[in-house]
Design goal:
Blueprint lengths: L1 E3 L5 E8 L6 E5 L13 H6 L3 E5 L15 H14 L5 E6 L1 H13 L3 E7 L7 H13 L5 H12 L2 H6 L1 H12 L3 H17 L13 E6 L7 H10 L4 E5 L6 H4 L1 H15 L1
Parallel strand pairs: 3-4, 3-5, 5-6, 6-7, 7-8
Antiparallel strand pairs: 1-2, 2-4
Helix pairs in contact: 2-3, 4-8, 5-7
Length: 269
């Protein structure tokens, strides 16, 4: 489905689960991802009998790719989408980039946020993270999309996952060869927003809802100390480190994440 925001940005979104439920869980994508990336988590949420909202941020695969993206703009888009769907209360679950948008939303808009789950995210930059994302922007200009993916995956997946999923990752790299160039232009806009707007640490104390912070033990893109900082700054938050996982815990350790997130949500539904 398509929703057009007040600034004429067309967002792709999906509703799953019990669409009549009064309880909504919104899943917020990582930067490279699309709504399909939540395939391991959705069945667990369906068993909880909740409404599940997924959407591609502006700049992502199935949504418009305008210039001048920002965290604030993403939050405004989400607010408008929730209003359009008459969703007055929501549990936010975000991974990486999506976790950062979730934090900004819960800290600034706040309205209707019942809980927040933050997976493999950061609230500020360090030199290593800044340099990696800046390099991704350069890779997005490479004419071979498979090279872009092959180089990026070294930053995001743990060594065990890279080894065990070698064939599957090679197939994904081949799919990137035929990806429309608009995807890569959107990625560059998203990276620019990330590098400019990731200064959330001082606002984390404004998050008053129940919070769960999760990080892969072997995350080298946004290592555990980033998640520990987030958990320390959000009063009463829960903090979980997932053993054997790199940056993409939703792919690398889906069973563990289902247990962790499902248990947390059950306490706050």
């Amino acid at each position: 489905m398509i929703f057009e925001t007040s600034d004429q940005t067309r967002l792709f979104y999906e509703l799953k689960g019990n669409v009549s439920s009064s309880v909504t869980v919104a899943l917020l994508n990582g930067v490279m991802a699309s709504t399909s990336s939540w395939g391991y988590l959705v069945p667990m949420l369906e068993r909880l009998n909740v409404r599940i909202l997924l959407h591609d941020f502006a700049g992502q695969l199935l949504s418009d790719k305008p210039n001048n993206l920002s965290f604030e703009r993403h939050c405004q888009h989400l607010k408008e989408l929730l209003h359009h769907l008459d969703i007055q209360q929501v549990h936010l679950v975000g991974t990486s980039y999506g976790g950062e948008i979730a934090m900004q939303y819960a800290a600034t808009i706040k309205e209707g946020v019942q809980s927040i789950t933050i997976i493999d995210s950061a609230s500020e930059l360090d030199d290593d993270l800044r340099q990696k994302v800046a390099r991704w922007a350069e890779l997005a200009d490479h004419p071979d999309g498979s090279y872009f993916f092959t180089e990026m995956m070294k930053d995001i997946y743990g060594d065990r996952y890279l080894h065990d999923q070698k064939a599957g990752l090679a197939e994904r790299a081949r799919l990137f060869q035929s990806m429309d160039r608009s995807y890569f232009e959107g990625q560059k806009q998203l990276y620019a927003a990330f590098l400019r707007d990731l200064h959330l640490t001082d606002s984390l104390s404004n998050i008053q809802c129940p919070a769960l912070v999760i990080c892969g033990e072997e995350d080298t893109l946004k290592p555990v100390h980033f998640s520990k900082l987030i958990a320390d700054r959000i009063a009463g938050s829960e903090f979980v480190v997932v053993p054997g996982s790199g940056h993409v815990a939703i792919f690398e350790k889906p069973d563990e994440l289902n247990s962790i997130i499902g248990g947390f949500l059950l306490k706050h539904l």
